[in-house]
Specification:
7-stranded antiparallel beta sheet, signal, 3-stranded antiparallel beta sheet, alpha+beta, AGP_Transferase, Aminoglycoside 3'-phosphotransferase, Chain: A, domain 2, globular, 10 helices, Aminoglycoside phosphotransferase domain-containing protein, 3 domains, 431 residues
C-alpha cells in the first residue's frame, strides 16, 4: 500500500511540497518535503506505540484518528480553519528526512500557522498543555479537547507576552512560573535543546529528562517552557553523602548511560544533532568567517566528522594568519586516533551541576535513596562514543582531588588516547 493514498486531496492542494516516498511499506521510515522521493533516511523510524499505533501501522497518519492528528476537514470550504496536528515522529522543525532532505511543512490556518517551521513569533506546544500553566503567559495557546502525548503543533503566530513578562537575557536564564513549570530563555538558548527533550521522551523514555511543554521564538530569544525538576544539583550534596548513597546514585547513572549507549542512531554513520542538524559543540562552531556563521555538520560518516574538526582548526589558523604546521599535524594524526567509533547518543555536558537528584520518599530501607534527572541538553547529539568521556573529563582538570573524578568512569566510558588528542585540539581550537 502506498501511504500517499491516505492523504486527503484537500491537504495536498494546500501543501504542494508535501509528498511521501513511493512504495513506503507499513512500519517503514517516512520522508516528507523536498527530495522525499529519493530520501533514504528519516529522523524517527515509525514503529507501533501505545499512543499512535494506527499512525505507525500506516507509516504516515490516520485521518480523523483518536490522536486527533488530522481532523475537521470533512466539509472544508476555502478560507475555513483546518485543525491539523502531526506527531513529532513525523516532523519537528524541518528535521524529517535527515541531512539529505530539505524539509518545509506548514498548513495554512485562519489565525496563524500550524506546522513545524518555527516562524518568528510562532509558538508550538504539546496538545493538552498543562492546565495549571497561567494562561496569561500564552494567551494564544488553545488546548485541544483531548490530551495526546504524541501531538505537537504551532499555536498561532505573532506577538507573545513572554518577552514582556521576562526580562531580556543574553545567556541562558531560568524563571520559575510555579512549582511545576520553569522557563529557560535567552539569546543563547537554542531550539535544538527542546527538540532533544522531545526525542528523549519519545525514543529513549528510560533516560530521565525534563518534559518539554512549549517552545517560543521571538526576536533573538528562545523560550523553552518545561517541567520544573524538584530536587537539587548533585554538586550541592555529593560531599555530604554516605558511601552507600553515592553508590546508589552511581548505579542509577550507570542505568541511564547504558540506555543512551544502546539507543540507535536513525541514520547510519551519522554525526549531528538529534534533530538531524549541525553538531552543537563549540569545537564545531565555524571559524571560516561571517559568511559561514554557525555550527558545522552534520557529517555522514566518521571520516567526515574528523575532517570537519581538522578543517575548522585550519580555518582558524588561516583567519589568524598563523603558520599551518600544527594544522598539518592534526590532518596527519587525528584520523589515526579518532577511528572506529560509532554514533552514540551523547549528553555532552555531564557535570554534577547538570545531574538533579531527588530523594526517594518511598524508600523503605534505612538508608536514603535518590532518583536522578539529567538537565541542560543543549549539547546533546549523535557524537562518537568517546565524546561523552571527553566532555566529562574537561572539568576534571580542576577537580582531581575529589572522588567524583574517579567515579565518573564507572558510568561513562573513557578512551584515554582519544581523550588526550581531543584535549590537545581543544586547547588550540576551543574558546
Amino acid at each position: 500500500m502506498k501511504t500517499t493514498q491516505l492523504i486527503p486531496s484537500i491537504l495536498l492542494s494546500l501543501i504542494p511540497t508535501f509528498t511521501l516516498a513511493d512504495g513506503v511499506p507499513d512500519g517503514a521510515k517516512l520522508c516528507v518535503g523536498q527530495g522525499a522521493g529519493s530520501c533514504q533516511f528519516a529522523a524517527y523510524q515509525l514503529q507501533p506505540t501505545d499512543t499512535c499505533e494506527d499512525l505507525q501501522k500506516n507509516a504516515a497518519y490516520i485521518y480523523d484518528h483518536e490522536c486527533n492528528l488530522i481532523g475537521h476537514t470533512e466539509n472544508f470550504v476555502e478560507g475555513d480553519a483546518i485543525d491539523s496536528q502531526l506527531p513529532y515522529t513525523v516532523d519537528i522543525k524541518n528535521i524529517v528526512g535527515g541531512p539529505s532532505c530539505s524539509i518545509k511543512y506548514e498548513i495554512a490556518y485562519s489565525d496563524g500557522l500550524y506546522g513545524y517551521g518555527m516562524p518568528s513569533g510562532g509558538v508550538w506546544a504539546r496538545a493538552g498543555f498543562p492546565s495549571h500553566v497561567p494562561f496569561s503567559l500564552l494567551p494564544i495557546l488553545r488546548s485541544p479537547p483531548s490530551i495526546d502525548s504524541c501531538s505537537f503543533h504551532y499555536v498561532g503566530a505573532g506577538s507573545s507576552p513572554l518577552s514582556e513578562l521576562l526580562p531580556f537575557a543574553y545567556s541562558a536564564t531560568y524563571n520559575k512560573l510555579n512549582d511545576n513549570i520553569v522557563v529557560k530563555y535567552g539569546v543563547r538558548v537554542e531550539t535544538w535543546e527542546g527538540q532533544a527533550l522531545i526525542y528523549l521522551e519519545q525514543c529513549v523514555p528510560e533516560v530521565p529528562a525534563p518534559r518539554l511543554y512549549a517552545m517560543h521564538c521571538e526576536s533573538d530569544e528562545r523560550f523553552l517552557v518545561m517541567q520544573r525538576i524538584h530536587g537539587v544539583p548533585l554538586n550541592s550534596l555529593w560531599s555530604s553523602l554516605a558511601p552507600s548513597e553515592k553508590d546508589d546514585i552511581i548505579t542509577k547513572l550507570q542505568q541511564v548511560f547504558d540506555a543512551m549507549r544502546k539507543a540507535e542512531c536513525p541514520w547510519p554513520d551519522f554525526f549531528g544533532s538529534l534533530d538531524g542538524g549541525p553538531l552543537p559543540h563549540y569545537l564545531f562552531y565555524s571559524q571560516r568567517g561571517d559568511d559561514h556563521e554557525g555550527f558545522l555538520g552534520p557529517f555522514s560518516n566518521e571520516s567526515a566528522f574528523v575532517a570537519g574538526l581538522v578543517e575548522n582548526y585550519r580555518a582558524l589558523v588561516e583567519k589568524n594568519k598563523h603558520p599551518d604546521y600544527k594544522a598539518r599535524f592534526y590532518e596527519k594524526y587525528l584520523p589515526r586516533v579518532l577511528q572506529g567509533h560509532r554514533p552514540t547518543l551523547t549528553h555532552g555536558d555531564i557535570q554534577q551541576k547538570n545531574i538533579m537528584v531527588v530523594e526517594n520518599c518511598q524508600n523503605d530501607q534505612d538508608r536514603r535513596s535518590f532518583d536522578i534527572v539529567l538537565v541542560d541538553w543543549e549539547n546533546a547529539g549523535w557524537f562518537p562514543d568517546f565524546w561523552e568521556g571527553f566532555c566529562a573529563s574537561c572539568p576534571l582538570h580542576f577537580y582531581w582531588d575529589e572522588d567524583w573524578s574517579w567515579r565518573v568512569q564507572e558510568f561513562i566510558q573513557f578512551w584515554p588516547a582519544e581523550m588526550s588528542m581531543m584535549h590537545l585540539i581543544e586547547r588550540d581550537l576551543g574558546w
